[in-house]
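[Q] Does anyone have a clean structure-token version of this?
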Amino acid sequence: MKDVQKNPWGEKKLYGVCIHPRYGGWFAIRGVLIFPDVQVPSLEQKLPVDCVSTDEKKIQLLNRFNFHWQDWTYRDIIDVEERYSEEQMQYFATPPAERFKLLGLTK
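[A] Here you go.
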């Protein structure tokens, strides 16, 4: 991973993860809209805030996200202002095919 100075994984394939400066990993990017014909040359690109600032924390984050994502601990790699509610955590921990049943709906 290019954001870690001393890569402990070698050539192993890892997935990156977004951490919000206020919400940590307790958010989701659900979609993106692309408008190929819209261009704004004056739009200034801002660099993201590096809220996971040490290599040690970045390595811990990537290990948690790639190898232990189901325990949700990667989401708290930094202090956060707000987390998912218990209901949200139960919903997202439920396989998609079983969510209608969880919500009391039938499919």
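[Q] Thanks! Anything notable?
[A] The mean pLDDT is 92.
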